[in-house]
Write a structure and sequence with these properties.
Secreted effector protein pipB2 fold; alpha+beta; 4 helices; 148 residues; four-stranded antiparallel β-sheet
Length: 148
């Protein structure tokens, strides 16, 4: 059985992402939904015990969303080279390398796989892996490509 992926356009300023307020103009960001759940929420559930153990529970799931064109480029590059893609950005500054999670992306003839999720500043373990139909994944990427 395959997982379902969807990209939904959002306004990061309306979502309270601090980085967006600095721009003063409406911006677009892409939210990632897997099996109907927003990725930041999925990650928050995975991270909460770690963040609480550090004494900073608000760190769990504290991500911003990447501009559709940047996310599209990163996902395509990773899928074509079996590399990593940054999936979210820092909620405060908007940079993907500041506070983010990446996943290793692989593709075969039928499927696209997301696995080996990693936080760029924490050694948090993510028990996540996803398998998407390659055809459905490509359709979702084309929708993402049309968002900007």
């Amino acid at each position: 059985m395959c997982d379902k992926i969807e990209f939904i356009r959002s306004d990061p300023d309306l979502k309270g992402e601090e980085w967006a307020a600095e721009h003063g103009a409406p911006l677009a960001a892409a939210e990632i939904y897997i099996n109907g759940r927003e990725l930041a929420d999925i990650l928050k559930a995975e991270e909460l015990a770690y963040a609480e153990a550090e004494g900073h529970p608000t760190l769990a799931g504290a991500y911003g969303h990447i501009a559709p064109d940047k996310l599209y480029t990163a996902l395509n590059k990773a899928k074509d080279s079996e590399g990593r893609a940054e999936l979210l950005c820092c909620r405060q500054c908007g940079e993907v390398g500041c506070w983010s999670v990446s996943a290793h992306i692989m593709r075969d003839n039928k499927y696209v796989f997301w696995h080996r999720f990693e936080h760029n500043h924490r050694k948090w373990h993510y028990g996540l892996s996803y398998k998407f139909s390659a055809a459905e994944y490509e359709k979702a990427l084309e929708k993402l490509n049309g968002m900007y």
